[in-house]
């Protein structure tokens, strides 16, 4: 009897708690006492969390709030104005952490993406500075990217010859992982190296294993400890996949440690090891596990996103053959017989505009990475409690802000050009790399790689749909990022 009364009292207390919102909390739906609003989110859109959250904001306004579990406030931010306000509010530059995310990095909070505070600042600054010195996003890495493009074009030719068409799924991933690993570990794998294929599988399976909302469900640490498979099933996050990747990176770090020279660092691992030996105090944030975490983050954040952007751009151009031809005419006029180079970029406004348009429509990262309120703060006139998870809906800036884009559904490169078509118009309504303190760390490399790969492939090949088949779908596949569904195309050499 006493137990029943106690259970009823607890349920009653939870019910009361669920119905109380902190004062001036953003408007939003109420959920159930224990689980908050989680069970209802997928009803708004079963497939895409960014569309579910957009529906919420259509009803409640650009800043909407609800509870994920009994005590986790969740703030959804939509539309240009509110998104910018959130991204430039430093109080919202934290990252939520949970046991599942920490599993990726040995149960500790390490790396860049899911870290915050002074440790994140130190690691992010270090990575930015040294990747830049190693040629990240500069013309000095152009040769490296070009070698990958040459290998890729050969592979595409071989595929077309052997099969009469080319399956464009996963082809670019291999090149992207290779570029990242060359900067980080100083080594280029052959495209048929099984170790490379294995790295790729791990990253791909991880990114497709979860979606944004499920990954943020606040599951207590003990659930993961005592019911690992059940918890992974619920969250979708397959962090266990990382063990072989961690082992692979650790082995390379140990090899580097044996033969590195203090005066001539060859790659990111060498400069990091140099920093570790400079700071040997126990409270230094530079240690081997941290380095593994940082490298894993480069892979998760860098490979799928860039290769997905290239794949989507080609897919949109398959759907828009006139635009493909116009790009090729511009490339022929500006680059002559050579392949496009970074130095050609300012003279290729139409090509640049088409690539921007493909990024706007494909929305590889429609919800950025979840942010967290580091302290009590204000957003859109509402009070945001410390610890709130904040989702920044980039999709709604790119796709839905009808007063700015007017016809957001249409693929129209001209919207990024001056009326005479000669100048590129840059706008802060296009935020594929997000903005503010948490903006993408790999943006310079990603921009160059996206441009060089897509422009080079279009200079060398024409891409056509398979005859007598419907055009491949533009509908993205869901996951931690959006990706294109693999598609086949007729790829014919130009000239
Ligand atoms: C087209 C390709 C890419 C796109 C669209 C993209 C987009 C993004 C976005 C939207 C974020 C989240 C920003 C936020 O939370 O507000 C992000 C974070 C990040 N990106 Fe990228 N990214 C790309 C390529 C890369 C590459 C090549 C790297 C390689 C190192 C990289 C490394 C990172 C890292 C480490 C973060 C976390 C930054 C932090 O939390 O401080 N990204 N990216």
From TrEMBL:
Domain of life (superkingdom): Eukaryota
InterPro entries (alphabetical): Cyt_P450, Cyt_P450_CS, Cyt_P450_E_grp-I, Cyt_P450_sf, Cytochrome_P450_fam2
Secretion signal span: 1-18
A Pfam family per the record: p450
Residues the record lists as binding heme: 440
Molecular functions per Gene Ontology: heme binding; iron ion binding; oxidoreductase activity, acting on paired donors, with incorporation or reduction of molecular oxygen, reduced flavin or flavoprotein as one donor, and incorporation of one atom of oxygen; steroid hydroxylase activity
Cofactors (names): heme
Listed SUPFAM superfamilies: Cytochrome P450
A GO BP annotation: steroid metabolic process
Keywords carried by this UniProt record: Heme, Iron, Metal-binding, Monooxygenase, Oxidoreductase, Signal
Cellular component per GO, a single term: cytoplasm
Record protein name field: Cytochrome P450
Organism the protein comes from: Daphnia pulex
């Amino acid at each position: 009897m006493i137990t029943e009364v106690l259970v009823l009292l607890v349920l009653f207390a939870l019910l009361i708690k669920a119905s109380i919102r902190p004062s001036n909390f953003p408007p939003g739906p109420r959920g159930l006492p224990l689980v908050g609003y989680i069970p209802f989110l997928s009803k708004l859109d079963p497939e895409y969390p960014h569309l579910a959250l957009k529906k919420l904001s259509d009803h409640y306004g650009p800043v909407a709030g609800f509870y994920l579990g009994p005590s986790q406030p969740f703030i959804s931010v939509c539309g240009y104005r509110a998104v910018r306000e959130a991204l430039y509010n430093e109080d919202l530059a934290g990252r939520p952490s949970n046991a599942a995310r920490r599993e990726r990095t040995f149960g500790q909070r390490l790396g860049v993406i899911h870290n915050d505070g002074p440790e994140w600042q130190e690691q992010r600054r270090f990575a930015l500075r040294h990747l830049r010195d190693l040629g990240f996003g500069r013309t000095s890495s152009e040769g490296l990217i070009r070698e990958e493009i040459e290998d890729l074009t050969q592979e595409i030719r071989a595929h077309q010859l052997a099969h009469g068409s080319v399956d464009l799924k996963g082809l670019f991933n291999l090149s992207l992982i290779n570029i990242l690993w060359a900067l980080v570990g100083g080594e280029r794998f052959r495209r048929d190296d099984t170790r490379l294929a294995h790295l790729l599988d791990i990253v791909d399976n991880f990114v497709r294993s979860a979606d944004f909302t499920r990954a943020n469900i606040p599951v207590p640490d003990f659930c993961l400890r005592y019911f690992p498979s059940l918890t992974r099933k619920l969250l979708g996050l397959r962090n266990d996949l990382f063990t072989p990747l961690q082992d692979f990176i650790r082995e390379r770090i140990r090899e580097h440690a044996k033969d590195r020279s203090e005066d001539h660092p060859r790659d990111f691992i060498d400069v990091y090891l140099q920093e570790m030996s400079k700071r040997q105090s126990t409270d230094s944030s530079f240690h081997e596990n941290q380095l593994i975490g940082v490298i894993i983050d480069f892979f998760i954040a860098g490979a799928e996103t860039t290769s997905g952007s290239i794949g989507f751009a080609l897919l949109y151009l398959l759907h828009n053959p006139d635009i493909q031809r116009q790009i090729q005419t511009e490339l022929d006029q500006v680059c002559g017989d050579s392949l496009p180079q970074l130095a050609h970029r300012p003279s290729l406004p139409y090509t640049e505009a088409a690539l921007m348009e493909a990024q706007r429509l494909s929305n590889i990262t429609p919800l950025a990475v979840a942010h967290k309120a580091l302290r009590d703060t204000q957003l859109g006139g509402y009070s945001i409690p410390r610890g709130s998870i904040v989702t920044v809906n980039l999709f709604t800036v790119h796709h839905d802000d009808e007063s700015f884009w007017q016809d957001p559904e249409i693929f129209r490169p001209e919207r990024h050009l001056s009326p005479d078509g000669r100048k590129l118009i840059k706008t802060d309504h296009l935020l594929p790399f997000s903005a503010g303190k948490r903006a993408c760390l790999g943006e310079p490399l990603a921009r160059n790689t996206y441009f060089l790969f897509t422009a080079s492939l279009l200079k060398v090949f024409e891409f056509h749909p398979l005859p007598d088949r419907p055009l491949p779908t533009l509908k993205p596949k869901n996951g931690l990022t959006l990706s294109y569904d693999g598609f086949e195309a007729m790829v014919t050499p130009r000239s």
